[in-house]
Amino acid sequence: MLHTLRADPAGTIGYDRMLRTYFAQGFPASSGEDHALWIGCCLEEFPTLASLYEGAVAEGYAIENVSVEMATAMASEASTPAGPSVAERFGLVM
Fold first, then answer.
1. Domain-wise residue ranges, the chain
2. How far, in Å, CA of 21 to CA of 19, rounded?
3. At 16, which helix (H) or strand (E)?
4. What global pTM score does this model have?
5. Is pLDDT above 90 for 47?
6. How far apart are CA 94 and CA 78, in angstroms?
């Protein structure tokens, strides 16, 4: 991941099946365990990998160097249907 010419090689992207969203986190904040970039934490926030890339750009970041194998694995995970979670059924997540 890139941000104003800084790179975070330890940045993480993936797919959260229960939230049905792609996510990205990177650039540890100086205040502890939080990250400067942490998107894709809400239900169906980024339903496609392309929408995650766009979300990162909107925050001033760029996601780079995602291998075809990694993108394929995430797409495979995203294609597996996931029903409502327990939290959704009890109205805790919307």
1. 2-89
2. 5
3. strand 12-16
4. 0.82
5. yes
6. 19
Tens of pLDDT, residue by residue over 8-23, are 888 899 999 989 999 9
Classify each residue of 45-77 as buried b or exposed e, where b means 16 or more C-beta atoms within 10 Å of its C-beta: bbeebeebbebbeeeebebeeeeeeeeeebeee
Kindly give the interhelix angle for 68-79 and 49-58, rounded to the nearest 10 degrees. Answer: 110
Kindly calculate the radius of gyration of the chain based on its CA atoms and give it in whole angstroms. 14
Burial class of 24 by CB neighbour count within 10 A (0 to 12, 13 to 18, 19+): buried
Length of the chain (residues): 94
Residue 72: phi and psi, rounded to 5, are -65, -45
Looking up tokens 């995650």 gives 52
pLDDT at residue 4 tops 70:
no
Spatial separation of the C-alpha atoms in residues 58 and 50, rounded to whole Å: 12
